[in-house]
């Protein structure tokens, strides 16, 4: 047993230096040179000011903006320093309560809209930080935004299309609309 | 399933199987000490490690010394991870000034990472300093995986050697697994992930303004958002490749900084099953008959595809309660539909379901969607895949050695039917082998069922159940299934960061890892000592479709008989409640 003690201690030490220090430092070095924007959080800039990350959603409840997924992070929604899902089970009454509250809020913001609500808009994301919604969830909100902002429906749809990413390489993942960049684009419209 | 769903799944399977042969034969070269193409760079490093550690690379070990070496190495690793957490407040690379971690949580996490489980009672971005993540957790991601691969290689040597006393050198197998396999693959994967937006920095968390203010739970206005950062990509790469699964951030690969795009999702998903699948080919190559490896891989793949289909179907069907509220859950080109609670838009149903099935088939345990919010049947399948003993692909190394033990059980069952002494790959399977194999098969279910029973009668176990009713029972059953099979995923509503769960799950992980690894090494030692029996007319060939079917039958039968009663109390009851 003692014969194996030295290899155990020294090899762990050496592999710690290699995989715990050299490896992450090497990845960081290459990443900071080759992909500085991505490696540092994909933070978007506008007029020299940070305006949020392209990958992290923000909370929107003003009807003049597109709304994103529900977020279960605490203490505030979309807390990017403490990611969390709701972990509500499918038969938990608390899930139905949360969904119903969102349904009510959506209907109150847009009483004339009688369409079925896309499931994306009434459920909490896994991370609590989902930056995106489905194109169906964006389309559901287009008429409301157009009316409140005195824009034409086509104008709003064009902005949605501009902020929509299709499936990667046309087949991977799901089509999705970035809510933060879409809302920033709405605010740019004079 | 939509046609695009089929396409994504088929593409995944094709790439996975296509890579099994090249990577598998490369790994066989690594373990047989042949030239690998990386010797020029890594050879001197490898020899330096041996020299400084006092390892005689040419000296082989019997199974007992091999086990002692592995246990000692894991124990010291565990100690280091424990101490790093207990002292991190005063150590460097802690820009958020995160405090020292409690003793019970530190114990749980140290065990969890040393046993290749990566159960996480804590949330990464709110608990662990960059130093602890890198020097503690990342390192164990490498070496615990390497220890599993070493154990597998020892078992394969046991099957191929005749009248031999030794099964290899643990230090050589472990170091070569790390240097030649895990490290190069991780480096490539980490850089692909950064290109997609996975963060990799030592800077402190960054503050950005919100477009519109929001409110916290106490009604205070919140006008900024703090973006948690860190050296994530390097750790995410190895947690996927090493079937570790411990997320850098709390929500694991559901976090946009850990898994930002469909492409990052695809490569992370590929990394879950890549090495476990390729090791089947390595096994075939090392026993001198690649058909043996393909047969095992076929059995794994067939079980997996069927169960995966069930998850996709269940999640795509959605939640009937939501349909009643006027909600559209139908899949179309505009939306993935289905049960989207606890899922990310970019992954939708199909990629969340493939991930759930892959991460539980392998003992990976990372998630890109919250399993606790899956439909009852959608959550049933991942839980059952874990309970099958982590042999459908399974952990790197540990999955295949578990499956080879099932193969031994299968030839034993077949031998009983025709009244002949069973043999596997020319080795007679006798009483000692069957005792060791039985331990491997029986220990995990005992841990899972006894642990669950204990938790649901103890007030401390029931206190932190989150969802009411049958689903709450599922949370506890899932937790012990996960720990008792070294998976690491969770029905995460269960509050597990308390002394009761930190200790009970910690011990479950320890038993599950070593009460399987040690009997496996004993099996290797015993098989190595045997002579080779030439195949006769009564020998059951183990590369045929018949054997694949027999192997699948044994795995499913053992898993079903053991767990269906417990599962009936959780997901099955809940499903009936949901559809009534």
Structure commentary:
The complex is a heterodimer of chains A (190) and B (580). Chain A is mainly alpha-helical and 190 residues long. Chain A has helices at residues 5-34, 36-39, 93-109, 135-148, 153-162, 179-188, and strands spanning 43-46, 49-53, 117-118, 132-133, 164-165, 176-178. A three-stranded antiparallel β-sheet of chain A has the order 4-6-5. In chain A, strands 1-2 form a two-stranded antiparallel ribbon. The mean pLDDT of chain A is 97. By secondary structure, chain B is mostly helical. Chain B has one domain. Chain B has helices at residues 3-31, 39-53, 63-87, 103-114, 124-127, 130-160, 170-196, 232-241, 262-286, 290-317, 320-323, 348-361, 376-387, 398-418, 431-457, 459-462, 470-484, 499-529, 545-579; strands at 206-215, 221-227, 327-328, 423-424, 427-428. In chain B, helix 10 packs across helix 12 (348-361), helix 10 packs parallel to helix 19 and helix 12 (348-361) packs parallel to helix 13. The longest helix of chain B has 35 residues, at 545-579. Chain B is globular and about 75 Å long. The interface between A and B is large, with 110 and 134 residues.
How does the SSE layout of this entry go?
The complex is a heterodimer of chains A (190) and B (580).
Chain A lengths: L4 H30 L1 H4 L3 E4 L2 E5 L39 H17 L7 E2 L13 E2 L1 H14 L4 H10 L1 E2 L10 E3 H10 L2
Helix pairs in contact in A: 4-5
Chain B lengths: L2 H29 L7 H15 L9 H25 L15 H12 L9 H4 L2 H31 L9 H27 L9 E10 L5 E7 L4 H10 L20 H25 L3 H28 L2 H4 L3 E2 L19 H14 L14 H12 L10 H21 L4 E2 L2 E2 L2 H27 L1 H4 L7 H15 L14 H31 L15 H35 L1
Antiparallel strand pairs in B: 1-2, 4-5
Mean pLDDT across all amino acids of chain A: 97
Order of helices and strands of chain A: HHEEHEEHHEEH
The major beta sheet of chain B can be summarized as:
2 strands, antiparallel
Number of structural domains of chain A:
2
The total of beta strands of chain B comes to: 5
* Unreliable parts of chain B: none
Q: Biggest sheet of chain A, strands in spatial order?
A: 4-6-5
* Number of spatially distinct domains of chain B: 1
**Oligomer kind:** heterodimer
End-to-end distance of chain B, in Å? 24 Å
Spatial order of the strands forming the largest sheet of chain B: 1-2
Q: How much is the radius of gyration of chain B in Å?
A: 23 Å
Biggest interface: chains and residue counts? A-B, 110 and 134 residues
Order of helices and strands of chain B: HHHHHHHEEHHHHEHHHEEHHHHH
């Amino acid at each position: 047993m003692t014969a194996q003690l030295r290899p155990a201690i020294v090899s762990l030490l050496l592999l710690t230096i290699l995989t715990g220090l050299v490896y992450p430092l090497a990845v960081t070095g290459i990443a900071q040179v080759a992909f500085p924007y991505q490696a540092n959080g994909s933070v978007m800039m506008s007029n020299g000011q940070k305006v949020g990350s392209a990958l992290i959603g923000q909370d929107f409840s003003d009807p003049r903006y597109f709304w994103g997924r529900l977020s279960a992070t605490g203490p505030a929604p979309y807390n990017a320093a403490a990611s969390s899902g709701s972990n509500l089970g499918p038969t938990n009454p608390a899930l139905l309560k949360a969904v119903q509250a969102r349904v009510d809020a959506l209907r109150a913001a847009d009483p004339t809209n009688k369409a079925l609500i896309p499931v994306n808009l009434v459920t909490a994301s896994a991370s609590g930080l989902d930056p995106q919604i489905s194109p169906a969830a964006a389309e559901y909100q287009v008429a409301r935004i157009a009316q409140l902002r005195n824009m034409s429906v086509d104008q709003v749809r064009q902005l949605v299309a501009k902020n929509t990413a299709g499936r990667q390489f046309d087949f991977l993942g799901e089509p999705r609309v970035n809510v933060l960049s879409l809302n920033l684009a709405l605010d740019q419209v004079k | 399933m939509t046609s695009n769903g089929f396409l994504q799944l088929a593409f995944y399977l094709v790439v996975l199987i296509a890579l099994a042969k090249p990577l598998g034969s490369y790994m066989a070269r690594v373990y047989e000490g042949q030239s690998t193409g990386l010797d020029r760079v890594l050879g001197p490093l490898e020899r330096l490690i041996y020299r400084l550690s006092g390892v005689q690379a040419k000296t082989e070990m019997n199974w007992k010394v091999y086990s002692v070496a592995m246990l000692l190495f894991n124990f010291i690793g565990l100690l280091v991870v424990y101490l790093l957490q207990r002292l991190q407040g005063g150590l460097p690379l802690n820009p958020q000034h995160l405090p020292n971690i409690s003793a019970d949580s530190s114990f749980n996490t140290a065990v969890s990472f040393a046993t290749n489980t990566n159960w996480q009672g804590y949330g990464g971005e709110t608990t662990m300093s960059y130093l602890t993540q890198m020097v503690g957790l990342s390192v164990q991601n490498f070496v615990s995986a390497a220890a599993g691969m070493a154990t597998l290689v020892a078992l394969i040597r046991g099957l191929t050697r005749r009248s031999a006393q030794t099964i290899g050198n643990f230090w050589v197998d472990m170091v070569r697994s790390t240097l030649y396999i895990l490290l190069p693959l991780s480096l490539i994967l980490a850089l692909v992930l950064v290109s997609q937006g996975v963060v990799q920095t030592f800077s402190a968390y960054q503050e950005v303004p919100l477009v519109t203010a929001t409110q916290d739970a106490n009604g205070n206005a919140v006008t900024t958002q703090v973006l948690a950062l860190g050296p994530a990509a390097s750790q995410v790469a190895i947690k996927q490749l090493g079937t570790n699964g411990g997320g850098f951030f709390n929500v694991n690969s559901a976090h946009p900084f850990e898994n930002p795009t469909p492409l990052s999702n695809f490569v992370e998903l590929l990394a879950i099953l890549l090495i476990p699948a390729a090791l089947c080919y390595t096994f075939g190559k090392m026993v001198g008959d690649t058909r043996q490896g393909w047969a095992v891989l076929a059995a794994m793949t067939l079980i997996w595809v069927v169960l995966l289909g069930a998850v996709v179907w269940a999640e795509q069907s959605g939640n009937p309660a939501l349909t009643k509220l006027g909600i559209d859950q139908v899949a179309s080109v505009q939306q993935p539909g289905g049960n989207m609670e606890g899922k990310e838009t970019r992954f939708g149903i199909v990629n969340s379901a493939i991930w759930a099935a892959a991460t539980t088939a392998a003992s990976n345990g990372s998630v890109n969607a919250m399993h606790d919010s899956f439909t009852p049947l959608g959550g049933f399948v991942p839980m059952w895949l874990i309970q099958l003993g982590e042999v459908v692909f399974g952990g790197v190394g540990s999955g295949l050695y578990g499956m080879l033990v099932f193969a031994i059980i299968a030839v034993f069952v077949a031998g009983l039917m025709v009244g002949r002494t069973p043999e596997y790959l020319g080795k007679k399977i006798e009483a000692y082998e069957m005792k060791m194999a039985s331990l491997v098969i029986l220990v995990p279910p005992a841990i899972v069922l006894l642990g669950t029973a204990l938790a649901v009668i103890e007030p401390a176990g029931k206190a932190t159940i989150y969802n009411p009713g049958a689903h709450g029972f599922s949370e506890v059953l899932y937790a012990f299934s996960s720990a008792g099979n070294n998976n690491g995923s969770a029905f995460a509503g269960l509050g597990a960061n308390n002394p009761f769960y930190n200790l009970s799950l910690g011990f479950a992980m320890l038993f599950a890892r070593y009460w399987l690894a040690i009997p496996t090494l004993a099996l290797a030692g015993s098989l190595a000592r045997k002579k080779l029996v030439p195949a006769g007319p009564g020998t059951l060939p183990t590369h045929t479709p018949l054997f694949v079917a027999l192997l699948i039958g044994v795995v499913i039968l053992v898993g079903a008989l053991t767990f269906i009663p417990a599962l009936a109390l959780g997901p099955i009851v809940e499903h009936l409640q949901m559809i009534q």
